[in-house]
Jacalin-type lectin domain-containing protein (Pleurotus ostreatus), 450 residues
Amino acid sequence: MLPLSLVVLGCSIPCLAAITQGSFSVLSYNVAGLPEPLSSSSPSTNTPLISPRLGPFDVVQVQEDFNYHAALYASDNHPFRTSTSGPALFGSGLNTLSNFPFIELQRVKWKDCFINEADCLTPKGFTFMRIKVADGAWVDFYNLHADAGSQTGDINARKSNLAQLAAFAQTWSVNMPIVIYGDTNARYTRDNEALHSLLDGLNVQDVWIQVIRNGVEPLPGSPANACPSTFPSGTPQSQMIACETVDKIFIRSSAAVTLTSNTITNENDAFLDSAGGPLSDHFPLSSVIHWQLSSAIRLADPVGGANDDPFTDVSLAAPGSVPRITSITLRGGNRLDSVSVAVQYTNGTTATATHGGQGGSPSTLALQSNEFITQAQICSGSHLSSTSVFFLQVTTNQGHTLSAGKSTSDCQTVVVPIDAGEAGKAWGLVGFWGRSGSEVERLGAIWGAS
Ligand SMILES: *[C@@H]1O[C@H](CO)[C@@H](O)[C@H](O)[C@H]1NC(C)=O
């Protein structure tokens, strides 16, 4: 049976999106789970105390989740969680516990480490995943644990680490909203250059800098404004959040999803033992992030698998200048080989975007001036022991269709958003996002109001 709200809105198949804004909470926490006595905390005692306290946060990202991983998950009920990459010596210590589903999980090891602080003994790095916070609200999440220590070798390794993450996100998160949080081991006073490879390289904002420091970064070279290792009971939040932790939260909006935050909280008081002592040697840092969908560009859920290179046509459709598709060309045989759209802007300029290879046979549908693609059916199947896209059929508001490939038993149909969108404009397909190589491996519609 369909959810009542969808029936009322006349939407009998997956569609976007009666709800166009909301918020989610994040928690960044280095849980000090190195095996005792290497850990600077007491994880065998503390991890079972941490576990049940993670529940209030929508997306928790932990670092140093090494040898007490089972205890960390034991009293937690987040429905979507990463599997451990192993104990110290084998794993990165990075895990994510989420209320929302994710795709595209990748664990990436740092290219550089410095031997001080035992950084090179275990494969530290970062994780990337794409989380569906709500219909249309796909957000790229990064968790990281950069090289520790204050020697020159450490500072240089951190520079390399954060530059490596920035370079990765410049490829994988093109035109996507981003949330990065974790243990950067960096301070503005000491690691300004490293932090700026994220800030400038990805155009992200540090929530602490924006919310607590009114946009003003601590001066490079000035004394560290570090937090004490513990706060006396009763210390006000304003004091706990005024000092700089190496744990940081960064956000970036995209054309399709605006992210904002006006809160960042040191969750110290929620993670104390019965004697008032902290459960880790890092503070837990949280933020509530507000999301808002664009009324001009909207991403539908993608179908398919995680092979080959990422692509997105979001750049075709900047808000305020969303073009109209004038024709669409598909190539297919046994599977879907390529998708190609030709678009025209209101000023007459045209552009095309093509993804996939030259296999299969092409077919083209030319659209009339008042014609929009309002529905797409995408089917996936198993190919060479992974999932790829086998079939696409698009349908216009005038009932014309174009298809390519072979249908399977695993199909999803998506339709244009059901909210009004930009005043005086109509929703229609403007392009696609997903992954492709010599064929189309993952495919999602991008709707635009033009
Ligand atoms: C037409 O509009 C598009 C989208 O805003 C822009 O990229 C392009 O430069 C414009 N072309 C001209 C000739 O103004």
Observations:
- Confidence is low (pLDDT under 50) at residues 1-10.
- The longest strand covers residues 373-383.
